[in-house]
Amino acid sequence: MSDKKASRPCHHCKSRSTSVPTDTSIIHYEKFWLYRHCSSVQQRDQQAQKAGQLFSGLLAMNVVFLGSAFISSMIFNNVAITLADVWIFLSILKVLCLFWIIYYLVGTSRQPHAVLYRDTHAGAIWVRGSVLLFGSCSVLLNVFQIGYSSVLVQCKSKVEILFPVIEILFICTQAYFLWHHSKDCIQVQHNFTRCGLMVTIATNFLVWLLAVTNDTLHMEIESQLREVERRFSGKAPPSHPHWCLAATGNETVLCICPNTTICRIFQKGYILLYPFNTEYCLICCSMLYVMWKNVGRRISHHHNLDTKPKFKLHGVVFGPVLGASAVIIGACIFMIYQIQATSLDPSRHAFVIYYSYYIVLLPLMCAGAVIGTIIHALEKKELDTVKNPTRSLDVVLLMGASLGQICVSYFSVVALVATNARSMLNSLAMAYSVLLIFQNITQNVFVIDGLHRRHTPPGKEEDTKEEQNQEANSQRRISVLELGQEIRKASLSYIHTYSHLSWKRRVLREISFFLVLCNIILWVIPTFGAHPLFENGMERSFYGFSTWFVIVNFGLPLAVFYRMHSIGGLLEIYVTA
C-alpha cells in the first residue's frame, strides 16, 4: 500500500463529487495496488479508502486480541503471566502510540495541504472538555498510585513506579492531540494515519479492560479495612498501625505502611479517582474513532458553513425549576450517603434514602422521555439522512453505554430474587434496578429519535417564506396562477407551524432541559463515590468479591459515560427545538 498525490485528475473520470474542491492539484487521492486498473481516479480512491480501513481495522483487532489474551492469562494463571507482564505489554503499546502522535503533530499535520477540511460536528467543546477533566483526574490517579507504591516499596517492585510515569506521559500527550486535532480530516499519509489511530484506540481499550478486571489494589485496601474493623472489635489486633497483604509470585509478603495518614490519603484518592481513568479511555476511543472515519474525507463547502443554533436559556420555566430541585435534593442525599454509608459500620438508613430518591426521580424521567418521543412523532418531521459519522457514533455509543447499567441492573435483580430476602432494603434495591432499566430504554428512544430529526430553527420558517415569495415574484411574468399557489402554500405552512408546533417545541425544550439536569446529578453521584451496588453487600455476598468487582467495574464506567453522553444529546435536542 502507498499513499501518493495525484497532481491532476485522471482524464477517465466521468464525474466529480461536490465535496471535492475545484483546485484538484491539492487533492491527495488514495491508491492501492489491488485497484490500480480502475479507470476512474475517484473510484480507485474509494476502493483504496475501504482497503485502508479494512487493513487498519484488522491491525487493531489483532492488538486487542493479543492484549485480551495477556489480561485473561493474568486472571486465570497469575503465576505464568503476572500483572507486571501485562503492564510491560501495555507500556510498549503506549510508547508506540506516543511516537506516532508526536510524528503526527510535528510531521503529518504540517505537510502542505494536509488538513484541507475540518469536521465541525466532531470534537464538540463538551467532549474535549471531558477529555481534559478526566485526563487530569487520571494523571492524579497515577500520582496517587506512584505515592502508594513508594510508601510500600519494601514489598513492591521499584519497576511498578515506572509504569504510572509512562501512563502520565501518554495521557497528557493524547489529551493535547485530541484537543487540537480531533476535527482534522487528514488528506496525506492516509494508511499510516489510520493504523496509528487504530493502534491508539486498541491501547485505550486494553487500558480500560485492565482497569475493569484488575482488582489487586482494591483487594489490598479491602484487606486493610477488614483488619481495621478487627482491630476496633478486639479481634487479632495488628502490631503495626496500617498494613496490607501483597502477593509476589507464590509468596505473601506483609506490607507495613509507616504513616497511616499518607496511606489513607493515597487509598481514598485512588478509589475516588478510579472511575475517571476508565471514563477517559472510553471518551478517547470515541474521539479517535471519529478521526479514523474522517481520514481522507472531503467535506462539501456548505457542510462547513452550517451554523449550529446557540444555547439560550429563555422560554423554559418548569424544566429548570424541576431539574434544579432534583440537583439540589440529590446533592444533599449524596452528602448524607457519603457520611453514613462509607463508615466502618454503614447505616441502612443511608441506603433507604438513596434508593428512595432514585425511585421518585426515575419515573419522572421516564415520563418526560415518553412524552418527548410522542411529540417527535406528532411533529411528523423528516429524518435527517445526511451522512454524519459523528452522529452515527453518538447513537452507537449511547446504545452501547446504556448496556453497562442495564447489565449491572439485571445481575442485581437476579441476586435479589435468588436470595429471596423480604426486607424493605431489598425491595427498594429491586425497584431501583428495574426503574434504571426502563429509564435507560425510554431515554435512548427519545434522544436517538431527536438526533435524527431534521430540525428547523424558529426564525428559518420566515426566511423560507420570504425566499418563496421572492422566487414567486421573480416568476410573476411567467404565470400569475403559479404565484398565487406558492403564496397560498407559504401562508398555510406559516399558519400550521406557529399554531400547531410552537407548543410542542416549548414542551420539548422543557423536557430536554429537565433531563439534562437530572442526568447531571445522576452523573455526579456515582462518579464521586456513591456505589450502593458494591457497598450494600447483598450482591457482593451472592456473586463473591472478585466476580462482583468485575461486573460493577464493567457496568459503572459505562453507566457514568452514558449519563455524560446523554447530556450532550439532550443539549442538542434543546438548542434545535
Question: Tags for this entry?
Answer:
577 residues, mainly alpha, 2 domains, two-stranded antiparallel ribbon, two-stranded antiparallel sheet, 17 helices, 71% helix, disordered N terminus, OTOP3 protein, transmembrane, cell membrane, hydrogen ion transport, membrane
Describe how the helices and strands are arranged.
Elements: H1 41-76, H2 83-106, E1 115-118, H3 125-151, H4 162-181, E2 184-186, H5 190-213, H6 216-233, E3 243-248, E4 251-256, H7 260-294, H8 301-305, H9 318-341, H10 348-379, H11 389-419, H12 424-451, H13 460-474, H14 480-527, H15 532-535, H16 538-543, H17 545-576
Antiparallel strand pairs: 1-2, 3-4
Helix pairs in contact: 1-2, 1-5, 2-4, 2-5, 3-4, 3-7, 5-7, 5-17, 7-11, 7-17, 9-10, 9-14, 10-12, 10-14, 11-12, 11-17, 12-17, 13-14, 14-17
Transmembrane segments: 54-75, 87-106, 126-149, 161-179, 191-211, 271-292, 313-339, 351-375, 395-418, 430-451, 511-530, 542-562
GO molecular function: proton channel activity
Pfam families: Otopetrin (PF03189)
What is the total domain count? 2
Element-by-element helix/strand order: HHEHHEHHEEHHHHHHHHHHH
Number of strands: 4
Low-confidence stretches: 1-25, 235-253, 458-468, 474-478, 497-501
Distance between the termini: 47 Å
